[in-house]
Amino acid sequence: MINLNETTTFNYIDLPILILSVSYLGFLFSSGYNFIKNYNKSKKKKEVIIIRGVPGSGKNLLIYDYEKYTDDNFLICSTDDYYKQDGTYNFYRKEVNKAERYCFQKFHDGLKFNIPKIYIENNNNKLWMYANYISLAYAYNYKVTIIEICCPDEEHLHYFNKRSIHNPPYSYSKNIYIDWDEDDNSIKLEPYLGNFKGPLPGDSLPAYPPITKKQLDNELDKYREQNLNEECIINSDDEDENDYSKNSELESYDIIDMIDKNDINEVNKRNIYINRSFNDNTISLTLGNKEQEYYLNEIINYTI
Q: N or C: which end of the chain has fewer CB within 10 A?
Protein backbone atom coordinates (compact mmCIF):
# COMPACT_ATOMS: atom_id res chain seq x y z
CA MET A 1 0.00 0.00 0.00
CA ILE A 2 1.32 3.44 -0.94
CA ASN A 3 1.52 6.04 1.80
CA LEU A 4 0.75 9.44 0.27
CA ASN A 5 2.15 11.25 3.29
CA GLU A 6 5.49 9.59 2.94
CA THR A 7 8.25 11.74 1.43
CA THR A 8 10.15 10.10 -1.45
CA THR A 9 13.69 11.05 -2.44
CA PHE A 10 15.08 10.95 -6.00
CA ASN A 11 18.19 8.86 -6.52
CA TYR A 12 20.46 10.75 -8.92
CA ILE A 13 22.43 7.58 -9.57
CA ASP A 14 19.46 6.34 -11.66
CA LEU A 15 19.34 9.53 -13.79
CA PRO A 16 21.55 8.25 -16.68
CA ILE A 17 19.43 5.07 -16.86
CA LEU A 18 16.24 7.14 -16.92
CA ILE A 19 17.60 9.38 -19.68
CA LEU A 20 18.67 6.38 -21.74
CA SER A 21 15.27 4.73 -21.27
CA VAL A 22 13.38 7.84 -22.40
CA SER A 23 15.72 8.29 -25.38
CA TYR A 24 15.27 4.66 -26.37
CA LEU A 25 11.49 4.93 -26.19
CA GLY A 26 11.66 8.10 -28.30
CA PHE A 27 13.83 6.29 -30.83
CA LEU A 28 11.37 3.39 -31.05
CA PHE A 29 8.43 5.76 -31.47
CA SER A 30 10.26 7.76 -34.15
CA SER A 31 11.33 4.62 -36.01
CA GLY A 32 7.84 3.19 -35.89
CA TYR A 33 6.31 6.43 -37.06
CA ASN A 34 8.77 6.75 -39.97
CA PHE A 35 8.24 3.12 -40.91
CA ILE A 36 4.46 3.54 -41.03
CA LYS A 37 4.79 6.83 -42.91
CA ASN A 38 7.16 5.37 -45.50
CA TYR A 39 5.06 2.22 -45.77
CA ASN A 40 1.91 4.21 -46.47
CA LYS A 41 3.84 6.42 -48.86
CA SER A 42 5.11 3.41 -50.79
CA LYS A 43 1.61 1.94 -50.88
CA LYS A 44 0.25 5.11 -52.44
CA LYS A 45 2.91 5.03 -55.15
CA LYS A 46 2.11 1.53 -56.39
CA GLU A 47 0.01 1.97 -59.50
CA VAL A 48 -0.92 0.04 -62.63
CA ILE A 49 -1.84 2.23 -65.60
CA ILE A 50 -3.71 0.51 -68.43
CA ILE A 51 -3.62 2.45 -71.72
CA ARG A 52 -6.20 1.90 -74.46
CA GLY A 53 -5.92 3.17 -78.01
CA VAL A 54 -5.93 2.22 -81.68
CA PRO A 55 -2.56 1.63 -83.39
CA GLY A 56 -0.59 4.86 -83.81
CA SER A 57 -2.72 6.87 -81.36
CA GLY A 58 0.30 7.64 -79.16
CA LYS A 59 0.17 5.13 -76.30
CA ASN A 60 3.93 5.00 -75.92
CA LEU A 61 4.18 8.75 -76.30
CA LEU A 62 1.71 9.17 -73.44
CA ILE A 63 3.93 7.12 -71.12
CA TYR A 64 6.99 9.25 -71.78
CA ASP A 65 4.94 12.43 -71.50
CA TYR A 66 3.76 11.35 -68.03
CA GLU A 67 7.17 10.15 -66.88
CA LYS A 68 8.91 13.33 -68.00
CA TYR A 69 7.67 15.00 -64.81
CA THR A 70 8.22 12.17 -62.30
CA ASP A 71 11.23 10.43 -60.74
CA ASP A 72 9.94 6.87 -60.11
CA ASN A 73 11.21 3.70 -61.70
CA PHE A 74 8.62 2.15 -64.00
CA LEU A 75 7.94 -0.87 -66.20
CA ILE A 76 6.23 -1.02 -69.61
CA CYS A 77 4.40 -4.21 -70.56
CA SER A 78 3.40 -4.59 -74.20
CA THR A 79 2.76 -7.47 -76.57
CA ASP A 80 4.91 -5.58 -79.10
CA ASP A 81 8.00 -6.46 -77.05
CA TYR A 82 7.53 -10.12 -77.95
CA TYR A 83 7.98 -9.36 -81.66
CA LYS A 84 11.14 -7.27 -81.22
CA GLN A 85 14.33 -9.14 -82.01
CA ASP A 86 17.69 -7.39 -82.33
CA GLY A 87 15.96 -4.04 -82.68
CA THR A 88 13.70 -5.26 -85.50
CA TYR A 89 9.92 -5.61 -85.21
CA ASN A 90 8.55 -8.74 -86.87
CA PHE A 91 4.86 -9.44 -86.34
CA TYR A 92 3.61 -13.03 -86.61
CA ARG A 93 -0.16 -13.34 -86.42
CA LYS A 94 0.07 -17.03 -85.46
CA GLU A 95 2.00 -16.11 -82.29
CA VAL A 96 -0.49 -13.58 -80.90
CA ASN A 97 -1.39 -15.87 -77.98
CA LYS A 98 2.29 -16.32 -77.11
CA ALA A 99 2.78 -12.56 -77.19
CA GLU A 100 -0.16 -12.06 -74.81
CA ARG A 101 1.18 -14.68 -72.40
CA TYR A 102 4.62 -13.07 -72.55
CA CYS A 103 3.16 -9.65 -71.73
CA PHE A 104 1.07 -10.96 -68.83
CA GLN A 105 4.02 -12.89 -67.36
CA LYS A 106 6.18 -9.77 -67.53
CA PHE A 107 3.43 -7.86 -65.76
CA HIS A 108 3.20 -10.51 -63.02
CA ASP A 109 6.98 -10.37 -62.51
CA GLY A 110 6.77 -6.61 -62.15
CA LEU A 111 4.12 -6.96 -59.44
CA LYS A 112 6.30 -9.45 -57.55
CA PHE A 113 9.18 -6.96 -57.57
CA ASN A 114 6.87 -4.20 -56.31
CA ILE A 115 7.87 -1.88 -59.14
CA PRO A 116 6.14 1.40 -58.21
CA LYS A 117 4.50 2.06 -61.57
CA ILE A 118 3.60 -0.46 -64.27
CA TYR A 119 2.13 0.48 -67.65
CA ILE A 120 0.07 -1.90 -69.81
CA GLU A 121 0.44 -0.55 -73.33
CA ASN A 122 -1.74 -2.54 -75.74
CA ASN A 123 -4.75 -1.79 -77.96
CA ASN A 124 -7.09 -3.12 -75.24
CA ASN A 125 -10.18 -2.46 -77.35
CA LYS A 126 -12.21 -5.13 -75.50
CA LEU A 127 -12.83 -5.01 -71.75
CA TRP A 128 -11.93 -8.67 -71.28
CA MET A 129 -8.45 -8.03 -72.71
CA TYR A 130 -7.33 -6.27 -69.53
CA ALA A 131 -9.73 -7.70 -66.94
CA ASN A 132 -7.10 -10.17 -65.67
CA TYR A 133 -4.55 -7.36 -65.32
CA ILE A 134 -6.94 -5.46 -63.06
CA SER A 135 -7.69 -8.51 -60.89
CA LEU A 136 -4.02 -9.38 -60.42
CA ALA A 137 -3.08 -5.75 -59.71
CA TYR A 138 -5.65 -5.58 -56.91
CA ALA A 139 -4.31 -8.86 -55.48
CA TYR A 140 -0.91 -7.14 -55.09
CA ASN A 141 -2.48 -3.99 -53.59
CA TYR A 142 -1.90 -1.77 -56.61
CA LYS A 143 -4.08 1.15 -57.58
CA VAL A 144 -5.45 0.78 -61.13
CA THR A 145 -5.95 3.65 -63.59
CA ILE A 146 -7.41 3.16 -67.08
CA ILE A 147 -6.61 5.74 -69.76
CA GLU A 148 -8.18 5.88 -73.20
CA ILE A 149 -6.65 7.88 -76.06
CA CYS A 150 -9.60 9.08 -78.09
CA CYS A 151 -10.08 8.34 -81.77
CA PRO A 152 -13.20 10.38 -82.63
CA ASP A 153 -13.64 9.38 -86.28
CA GLU A 154 -12.21 7.48 -89.24
CA GLU A 155 -10.26 10.52 -90.38
CA HIS A 156 -8.24 10.31 -87.16
CA LEU A 157 -8.02 6.54 -87.60
CA HIS A 158 -6.39 6.96 -91.04
CA TYR A 159 -3.90 9.42 -89.60
CA PHE A 160 -3.01 7.17 -86.64
CA ASN A 161 -2.69 4.12 -88.89
CA LYS A 162 -0.25 5.94 -91.16
CA ARG A 163 1.69 7.28 -88.16
CA SER A 164 2.12 3.90 -86.45
CA ILE A 165 5.75 2.74 -86.42
CA HIS A 166 4.63 -0.89 -86.88
CA ASN A 167 2.84 -0.21 -90.20
CA PRO A 168 -0.30 -2.27 -89.50
CA PRO A 169 -2.80 -2.83 -92.34
CA TYR A 170 -5.62 -0.30 -92.25
CA SER A 171 -8.13 -3.16 -92.08
CA TYR A 172 -6.52 -4.24 -88.77
CA SER A 173 -6.85 -0.74 -87.27
CA LYS A 174 -10.41 -0.40 -88.52
CA ASN A 175 -11.44 -3.71 -86.95
CA ILE A 176 -10.13 -2.46 -83.60
CA TYR A 177 -11.94 0.86 -84.07
CA ILE A 178 -15.26 -0.82 -84.89
CA ASP A 179 -14.97 -3.51 -82.22
CA TRP A 180 -14.41 -1.05 -79.35
CA ASP A 181 -15.91 -1.48 -75.88
CA GLU A 182 -16.66 1.66 -73.89
CA ASP A 183 -15.19 1.72 -70.38
CA ASP A 184 -17.03 4.12 -68.08
CA ASN A 185 -14.15 3.96 -65.59
CA SER A 186 -11.53 5.21 -68.04
CA ILE A 187 -9.98 8.67 -68.30
CA LYS A 188 -10.38 10.06 -71.82
CA LEU A 189 -7.41 11.95 -73.29
CA GLU A 190 -7.09 13.90 -76.50
CA PRO A 191 -4.29 12.54 -78.73
CA TYR A 192 -1.16 14.38 -79.75
CA LEU A 193 -1.32 15.26 -83.46
CA GLY A 194 2.17 15.52 -84.87
CA ASN A 195 5.60 13.92 -84.54
CA PHE A 196 8.98 14.57 -82.89
CA LYS A 197 9.47 17.65 -85.07
CA GLY A 198 6.35 19.31 -83.72
CA PRO A 199 2.54 19.37 -83.81
CA LEU A 200 0.48 19.61 -86.97
CA PRO A 201 -0.35 23.23 -87.95
CA GLY A 202 -3.52 24.14 -86.09
CA ASP A 203 -3.84 20.50 -84.99
CA SER A 204 -5.47 19.89 -88.38
CA LEU A 205 -5.37 16.41 -89.88
CA PRO A 206 -4.21 15.75 -93.44
CA ALA A 207 -7.20 15.20 -95.69
CA TYR A 208 -8.17 11.62 -96.44
CA PRO A 209 -8.33 10.67 -99.19
CA PRO A 210 -5.65 13.19 -100.29
CA ILE A 211 -6.91 16.06 -102.44
CA THR A 212 -5.08 18.07 -105.10
CA LYS A 213 -4.22 21.78 -105.03
CA LYS A 214 -6.88 22.42 -107.68
CA GLN A 215 -9.54 20.80 -105.48
CA LEU A 216 -8.40 22.92 -102.53
CA ASP A 217 -8.61 26.10 -104.63
CA ASN A 218 -12.14 25.21 -105.75
CA GLU A 219 -13.22 24.62 -102.14
CA LEU A 220 -11.72 27.98 -101.13
CA ASP A 221 -13.54 29.80 -103.96
CA LYS A 222 -16.86 28.25 -102.91
CA TYR A 223 -16.23 29.26 -99.32
CA ARG A 224 -15.52 32.87 -100.33
CA GLU A 225 -18.68 33.06 -102.45
CA GLN A 226 -20.83 31.80 -99.59
CA ASN A 227 -19.38 34.27 -97.09
CA LEU A 228 -18.97 37.28 -99.37
CA ASN A 229 -22.03 39.11 -98.06
CA GLU A 230 -21.58 38.14 -94.42
CA GLU A 231 -20.07 40.55 -91.92
CA CYS A 232 -16.64 39.52 -90.72
CA ILE A 233 -14.85 41.51 -88.03
CA ILE A 234 -11.18 40.63 -87.65
CA ASN A 235 -8.99 41.92 -84.80
CA SER A 236 -11.76 44.13 -83.43
CA ASP A 237 -10.64 46.74 -80.91
CA ASP A 238 -13.45 45.59 -78.64
CA GLU A 239 -11.96 42.10 -78.36
CA ASP A 240 -9.42 41.46 -75.66
CA GLU A 241 -6.70 39.16 -76.99
CA ASN A 242 -6.03 37.88 -73.47
CA ASP A 243 -9.67 36.93 -72.80
CA TYR A 244 -9.81 33.12 -72.83
CA SER A 245 -13.04 32.76 -70.86
CA LYS A 246 -14.86 31.23 -73.85
CA ASN A 247 -12.28 28.45 -74.06
CA SER A 248 -11.96 27.82 -70.33
CA GLU A 249 -13.59 24.38 -70.52
CA LEU A 250 -11.37 23.29 -73.41
CA GLU A 251 -8.28 24.52 -71.62
CA SER A 252 -9.08 22.28 -68.66
CA TYR A 253 -8.95 19.08 -70.77
CA ASP A 254 -5.88 16.89 -70.57
CA ILE A 255 -4.08 16.65 -73.91
CA ILE A 256 -0.97 14.58 -74.63
CA ASP A 257 1.98 16.91 -75.07
CA MET A 258 4.90 16.73 -77.48
CA ILE A 259 8.18 15.14 -76.39
CA ASP A 260 11.49 14.86 -78.19
CA LYS A 261 14.14 12.15 -78.34
CA ASN A 262 16.15 13.81 -75.56
CA ASP A 263 13.12 13.46 -73.27
CA ILE A 264 12.85 9.77 -74.16
CA ASN A 265 16.54 9.11 -73.46
CA GLU A 266 16.27 10.84 -70.09
CA VAL A 267 13.10 8.99 -69.07
CA ASN A 268 14.56 5.63 -70.16
CA LYS A 269 17.14 5.91 -67.36
CA ARG A 270 14.27 4.93 -65.02
CA ASN A 271 12.72 2.34 -67.33
CA ILE A 272 13.11 -1.19 -65.92
CA TYR A 273 13.58 -4.08 -68.34
CA ILE A 274 12.71 -7.64 -67.26
CA ASN A 275 14.11 -10.70 -69.01
CA ARG A 276 13.31 -14.29 -68.07
CA SER A 277 15.60 -17.25 -68.67
CA PHE A 278 13.80 -20.57 -68.35
CA ASN A 279 17.01 -22.50 -69.02
CA ASP A 280 18.65 -21.64 -65.68
CA ASN A 281 15.44 -20.56 -63.87
CA THR A 282 16.58 -16.95 -63.42
CA ILE A 283 15.20 -13.50 -64.11
CA SER A 284 17.24 -10.36 -64.77
CA LEU A 285 16.31 -6.73 -64.16
CA THR A 286 18.06 -3.97 -66.07
CA LEU A 287 17.91 -0.32 -65.03
CA GLY A 288 20.14 2.04 -66.97
CA ASN A 289 23.56 0.36 -67.07
CA LYS A 290 22.89 -1.85 -64.04
CA GLU A 291 21.75 -5.45 -64.33
CA GLN A 292 20.84 -7.80 -61.49
CA GLU A 293 19.92 -11.48 -61.66
CA TYR A 294 17.53 -13.31 -59.32
CA TYR A 295 16.35 -16.88 -59.02
CA LEU A 296 12.65 -17.15 -59.81
CA ASN A 297 11.82 -18.71 -56.42
CA GLU A 298 13.37 -15.72 -54.61
CA ILE A 299 11.31 -12.84 -56.04
CA ILE A 300 8.04 -13.20 -54.11
CA ASN A 301 7.14 -9.67 -52.93
CA TYR A 302 10.66 -8.39 -53.55
CA THR A 303 10.88 -4.59 -53.25
CA ILE A 304 12.70 -2.87 -56.08
A: N
